[in-house]
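Entry for S-adenosyl-L-homocysteine complex. Fields follow.
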Amino acid sequence: MADSTDTHIEEMPELSDGDEDDDDEQWMEEERQTVTCLFCHKLLDSVSATLQHCTAEHQLSLVNVIKKHRLDDYGYIKMINFIRSTKCAPSSLMELSEGPLPWNKEDFLRPVLQDDPLLQTDLEELCEKDDMSPSPRTQPSDELLCRAQAAEARAKRSEEALTRAMEDLHKLKLLAQGLVLNAETSKSSNLGAVAELREDEDEAYFSSYGHYGIHEEMLKDTVRTESYRDFMYSNPEVFRDKVVLDVGCGTGILSMFAARAGAKKVIAVDQSEIIYQAMDIVRSNQLENVITLIKGRIEDIKLPVEKVDIIVSEWMGYFLLFESMLDSVLYARDLYLADGGSVYPDLCNISLAAVGDAEKHQSRIGFWDDVYGFNMACMKSAVVPEAVVEVVNAETLISEPAVIQMLDCNTVCLSELEFTADFSLKMTKTTEWTAIVGYFDIFFDKGCSNKVIFSTGPQVPKTHWKQTVFLLEKPMAVKAGEELQGRINVRKNKKDPRSLFVTFDLPDKKQTYSLQ
Ligand code: SAH
């Protein structure tokens, strides 16, 4: 059977996007006519141009006359023919008072000019157009320009509204995805102390990462950020066509480095609100086809892939292990890393060194002996146990550094993140020993043709981790060349697993410090 709809389809007018476009087209059509002015011999190229010309040159607004006398189509036609046939002065029309009109005769229905465009125009439209038309001084070409600009502005506004709607939709989609995935996985087993933290207990932790300030500080830490960047950009063979998981993506910087380094797919996860910014950032950089962002705790969500080839994360806290975020990376590693896959950074070590800074010791500890003439020495036992995060002047170092722990993120297990280690500090100066400084070094090493290392120690440019200082309650006299033996124990605070307790066993004193 033949399809009878074919011919109808051909006859259908072309669909347009909106009425405004239709209007514009009609208006453009109308512009191609030649119109003789009602009061002089000037030829104009449109009805609206003629009306404007009459207003500008003859000080008569035809539309005002139409409105004033409430002319209908016939009244209007009669008026045009009346003007053309009588060649009356414009002023005579302006002076017409309400009452019987001079063109109120059937004779004036007959056109004076053949195909007079003024008679073919739609009265209502004419009045509307006149309302919208630019000032009389505007030239026809300017008029076209104005209309084109207005149409362009309308299109821009619509486009912007559409973009905003698309963005909101995208956020909603991710939110819904997160909710569904959370619901799916809430029953799944969790590993480790942090995994067992209740969500409300962790709320303060994640909300601290919701503020942009902390991310600005991290991004501006060039030692940190450039090390990640250099590792990824200078080892593209590690990333090419790989599936990468970014645990704790923050603003998405590591994910974007990975994408630029050639990763096939990057899954970026963060529980903090900053991920909404990351969504916009990723799209602003046209990386949405490579990077998938998921809001949620890595321990709670389900990844859209079974396994990943690489895990990148910037999980390091003060004294390396403060924050216990490495627990979350190990959780992700054990669940998602494919055989032969790698976690980066892979190697990390923690070092200690002795500090001799009598001035600082006096300002922190000695200070309490005499505060405005009062003895507050009892405060010392409260002040000493709080480890201090600050930049240590390298000139105050009085021993060689001692590495107390080395971790390989590809193999370390959760239980090894709490440890005891013996150490020996070889003194390089004869002086007063006032504190121990702790810091860490980070290595991007496994399978890298261009290895990258950075340190957070006092002898190199500072990072936002600064150093961690453990003040001795009483300074101790030491001699250059002397080796002081000690033991350190690092463990989580059971009541707050993101904070740490560090105990030092030194020759004449045992002291526990907290890092919170
Ligand atoms: N990768 C970013 C941000 C590092 S800060 C950068 O390098 O700039 C650590 C981020 O990890 C924070 O945004 C924090 O919210 C997120 N995070 C920490 N533990 C997490 C967990 N268990 N699940 C998801 N996100 C986590």
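NOTE: The first helix runs from residue 6 to 11.
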